[in-house]
Amino acid sequence: MESSEVYKSYIKDIDMNKMKLALLVAGSLVAGASTSAFAEGQGTIEFKGRLFDETCTIKPGDEKKVVDLDAVSVQTLTKATDEGGYKPFDITVNCSTPISSTTNPNLTQVAMNFEPTGETTDWDATTGNLMNVAPSGAKNVQVKIITGDNARTHIKIGDRGQWVTPDANGDAVFKYFGGYYATGKTEAGPVNAKVMYTLVYQ
C-alpha cells in the first residue's frame, strides 16, 4: 500500500474514532440530563403518627347513630346546589380517664374524623357529600353534613370535625346537622347514606 493511501486510512480511522467519542459524550449528556430531570420530579412523603390506649368511649347508641331526616318534596330540590331538610344530631363521648393522663400529657381535646365506609360509591369526591345508596332511591340527591355551631361549616368526607374539650364530667358532645343536597333536578324515592367516624386526639 502506498504511503498516501496509508495516510488516508489513518486519517479515516481518527475521524471515525472522533465521531464515536462525540456520540458517546452526547449520549452521556442526554442520559445525565434525563436522570437529572427525573430526580427533580421526584419527592418523598413521610407519615408520622401516634397510637395510645383509648381514653374516650362513645355513648351507647351513638356508635351506630341513625338520623331520621324529614321527608321533603322534590319541589324543594329542583336544581344543583339546592339544600334543605336539615336535621340536628349529636354524638356524645365520655372521657372518664382524662385525655391528658400521664401517658398522654400533651393531649387535651377530642374530635371526629369523618371517613368513607370503604365503598367507592358511598361518597362524592367532588362535593364531599354522602351518596344516596338506597335501592331504587331518589335521584340526584346526596346527604350533606354541617357543624351545629353558628358557623355551619360543611364537613366533607375525609374532614375532621371541630375539636372539643371534655367538661368536668369527662363528656364531650359533638353537634351536627344532616340534610339533603341536590346535584340536579331530584326525583322521588328513599334516601340512605352512611359514614364512618373515628375519634382523634390532640
Automatic annotation (TrEMBL):
SUPFAM superfamilies, per the entry: Bacterial adhesins (SSF49401)
Organism listed in the record: Morganella morganii
Cross-referenced PANTHER family: FIMBRIAE MAJOR SUBUNIT, FIMBRIAL SUBUNIT ELFA-RELATED
Gene3D superfamilies: Fimbrial-type adhesion domain
Signal sequence, start to end: 1-39
Name of the molecule in the record: Type 1 fimbrial protein
One BP annotation, GO: cell adhesion involved in single-species biofilm formation
InterPro entries: Adhesion_dom_fimbrial (IPR000259), Adhesion_dom_fimbrial_sf (IPR036937), Adhesion_dom_sf (IPR008966), Bact_Fimbrial_Adh_Pro (IPR050263)
Domain Fimbrial-type adhesion: 45-202
Annotated Pfam families: Fimbrial
GO CC aspect terms: pilus
Keywords: Signal
